Amino acid sequence: MGKKSPKPPAAPDPVVTATAQTASNKETAYWNAVLNNVNQNTPYGSLSYQQTGGNQSSGEPPPQFTSNITLSPEQQRLYDLQTDQDRQLLELGGDQLQRIRTTASTPFSFGGIGNEINEQGVTQARADVEAALMSRLNPQFAKDEESLRTRLINQGINQGSEAYNNEFDSFGQQQNDARMQAVLAAGQYGGDLQNQALQRRNQSIQEYATQRNAPLNEYIGFTSGTQIQNPQFQSAGYGGAAPVDYAGMVNNQYQSQLGAYNSKVAGRNSTMGSLFGLGGQIASGYAGSAAGSAALTSMFSDIRMKENIIEDGEANGHKMYRFNYIGDTQTYRGVMAQDILETHPEAVQLDEDGMMKVDYGMLGVSMDKING
Fold it and tell me: Where are the domains of the chain?
């Protein structure tokens, strides 16, 4: 019956592809781990790897690698000494922590610190100093005023004269200046007294804070010992291998097969288009009868070659149709190969491009050309 129509390639099974890709990824990951876990030896110690698991067929878990570091005897000795010192310091810290708990139970406060001086005390101190200074100045002012008055009278300068008044005005200014100096000195004394009180208070606060924080600082010192550093190992420098893109390879193969299939289909469609036109020409070449129609024998009757298909009754038990071939405007009346394939497959022929023909002589009917 000739060659059959090309079949499209089967699409890859995503489950099978994913399973194969997963297996490839696992294998690559395993060998990357093996090549990266390089045993090393240094003057400070050694590093070795031990694999466990990995035999999936026997039910073992996935492969795992355990790194083991072994210090050199000298480094091990330092480590043991440091560990013992840390233990002792931590024990001391535990003891100190009990004392801290006792101290912390008392609220932190500066309320009990003495040497306080308030504004009222400063004002009173200034007044006391001013009063003390003035108590010494006032008697002297009285003596000086009496001496000035006696001197002016002896000089013949009478009380109430301009010269007399000028002398006493000058004397009054000197008294005011002296009083002002006393006020300023009293203020300076009050400020110094306040500063001294603040200094004493700040010193008391520092002493109180130091005493309060001393147990905590000791605890921090006890519990922050220097640790022995593990030996440093260099990386093996292996960059790792990328897993095979199995899914990509499968897809590329499928796309290549699909491209070849599409190319074949395109060529077949081109040939079929020519056959469609040829079918119309063959049908037209068999025209002619006294009634305006002629019987034809073996003809292309595949529904894929026809268009404008309309049912048109039956003949000898076979369903009949009116149609025209694609690319030809002439109308015919005949059977469909797809129908005959189910009832009389022996009357159907398959050409090399997969298009079906019908032998009308075996059906006892004819394919007629319809005029007009």
Answer: 73-229, 261-370
